[in-house]
């Protein structure tokens, strides 16, 4: 199993600090031996930041790191021109020595689609066509016009380096049919069943539909925040949790008036002492079929020191135990 971390590039004092701190997390994760660093693309601002353009960010991270792989979870494919996206990916892959992977999906809400002049009702169609074009472009095939190929060509074959984020069983089957690795979100929303119960079915459908010669990968994104104890963990992330919860309640995703523990269950959170987290992750139903554990602190927004300490505990105590 590969170990990754995901940042939504948020902070308590605005975007400039959030971007600097997120870059520091990539450097620290590289030194700690994390296999992959992931960023999430958001065109609408998030509390204390949000990353609209991930590829310049990852190019800078490539220059500051030596071995960690660099990826998106996700790039919002319908809002990108797939050829331009392929060119950006290829440039960063060349600069990084072949360390790039890319996760794509339809992401985002109606307001972001409207801002880009894209019909939100076409998002599945555009994801399908865009993914096909992206794959062909990264393979060095002719795309767009006779004789046209992107330059530079990626540093290495991209066949097994493309991921798709999904939110349903049919989506998981589609990812397999498209030859994309599977990305599973930190939690499912709108289901009464636990997240891992729902997502294990999707993962099994993905594996059953896979028919490519190379082995598939399943990336399991989870909200993991270790500290010396649960109280300490909550003191670092509680403000961000409540802010995110309020947004979910406004959108009708979460019911109002629940306790913090109830909302943590809906976020499928793993927080507290590393031993507690290890025990909970060992019971996680998707873990036996996952190939990549992708830890993230969102919706919590810890300060930099707490985030670095959490990465250290994940790398040194949580990951080796599972």
From TrEMBL:
<protein>
    <submittedName>
        <fullName>LLM class flavin-dependent oxidoreductase</fullName>
    </submittedName>
</protein>
<dbReference type="InterPro" id="IPR036661">
    <property type="entry name" value="Luciferase-like_sf"/>
</dbReference>
<dbReference type="Pfam" id="PF00296">
    <property type="entry name" value="Bac_luciferase"/>
</dbReference>
<dbReference type="InterPro" id="IPR050766">
    <property type="entry name" value="Bact_Lucif_Oxidored"/>
</dbReference>
<feature type="domain" description="Luciferase-like">
    <location>
        <begin position="6"/>
        <end position="283"/>
    </location>
</feature>
<dbReference type="InterPro" id="IPR011251">
    <property type="entry name" value="Luciferase-like_dom"/>
</dbReference>
């Amino acid at each position: 199993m590969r170990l990754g971390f995901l940042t939504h590039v948020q902070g308590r004092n605005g975007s400039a600090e959030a971007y600097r701190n997120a870059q520091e997390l990539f450097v620290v994760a590289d030194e700690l031996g994390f296999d992959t660093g992931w960023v999430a693309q958001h065109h609408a601002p998030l509390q204390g930041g949000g990353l609209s353009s991930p590829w310049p960010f990852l190019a800078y991270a490539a220059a500051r790191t030596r071995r960690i792989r660099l990826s998106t979870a996700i790039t919002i494919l319908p809002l990108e021109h797939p050829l331009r996206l392929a060119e950006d990916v290829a440039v960063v892959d060349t600069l990084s020595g072949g360390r790039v992977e890319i996760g794509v999906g339809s992401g985002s809400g109606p307001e972001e689609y409207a801002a880009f002049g894209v019909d939100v009702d076409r998002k599945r169609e555009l994801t399908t066509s865009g993914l096909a074009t992206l794959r062909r472009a990264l393979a060095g095939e002719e795309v767009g016009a006779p004789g046209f190929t992107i330059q530079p060509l990626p540093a290495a074959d991209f066949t097994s380096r493309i991921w798709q984020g999904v939110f349903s069983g049919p989506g998981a089957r589609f990812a397999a049919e498209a030859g994309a690795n599977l990305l599973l979100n930190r939690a499912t929303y709108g289901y009464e069943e636990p997240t891992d119960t729902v997502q294990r079915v999707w993962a099994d459908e993905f594996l059953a539909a896979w028919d490519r010669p190379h082995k598939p990968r399943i990336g399991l994104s989870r909200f993991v925040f270790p500290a010396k104890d649960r109280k300490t963990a909550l003191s670092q992330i509680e403000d961000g949790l409540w802010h995110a919860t309020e947004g979910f309640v406004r959108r009708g995703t979460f019911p109002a008036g629940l306790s913090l523990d109830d909302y943590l269950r809906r976020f499928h959170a793993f927080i507290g002492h590393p031993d507690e987290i290890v025990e909970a992750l060992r019971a996680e139903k998707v873990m036996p079929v996952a190939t990549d554990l992708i830890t993230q602190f969102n919706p919590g927004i810890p300060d930099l020191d707490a985030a670095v300490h959490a990465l250290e505990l994940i790398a040194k105590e949580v990951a080796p135990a599972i």
